[in-house]
Amino acid sequence: MKDESNRFSFSSFILHLSPFTNMPRTTFDTEISQLKFQLLDYGARVEAVIGEGMETLKTRDRALAEAIIQNDEQLNATRYELEEHCYVLMATQAPMAHDLREILSILLIAIELERIADHAKNLAEITIFMGNEPLLKPLIDLPRMASISQEMLRDAMDAFAHNDAAKAEEVANRDDEVDNLYKQVFRELMSYIVEDPRTVTRALNLLFAGHNLERIGDCVTNIAERVIYAATGRLQELNVQREV
Known about the structure:
The protein has 244 residues and is mostly helical. The protein has a single domain, classed as Phosphate transport system protein phou homolog 2, domain 2 (Methane Monooxygenase Hydroxylase, Chain G, domain 1). Helices cover 80% and strands 0% of the residues. It has 8 helices and no strands. Helix 5 runs antiparallel to helix 7 and helix 6 runs antiparallel to helix 8. The longest helix has 35 residues. The radius of gyration is 20 Å and the shape is elongated. The two termini are 28 Å apart. The relative contact order is 0.13.
């Protein structure tokens, strides 16, 4: 699934040392600002993929689904570029505490964004797996889960851009909305299976889609935690998950 050629390597790290070593503070600040801009752009791209993944499931658009899967390699590559840049800055510039928190948060948020993109890609893969098989039921709660997840991610990235810990905590609290919708989807699909076991495959396809959307909400909560850490230096677990 992952493109190993894009992984950070020690040799590439050495090649990058020279241009970054002993850079002036103004240049260092510019590098941090550029990293933040790249991360925000990455977040916007990932947010769009959530909607696109849901759209493939609603419309059964196989061409769009295949495009999402192919584009995932580019999203993976962006994550590794951001990760490598963070490693170089940490290793060569001896950043102060606030700078280090910010760099670490960028690194960890980039990882969560890639995970979100993978979950969105899974929606496209479900669409292809289903082929021409009709949906078990009209999609109501799943699109709502996708919409809330997009809103959460957009707000989380905005909180990061403005170092807004309070807004990040509000984002994490919204994960309950996604979880509650998933529980509702789970109960409804189980009732279909109990009433007619022949629906099990179609029910499980939608259940797997719901699971991926629920996991996106969890990833956004993790991003909110990193935003709070960057802004305040406080590490805390937000909105601890409960069993379905």
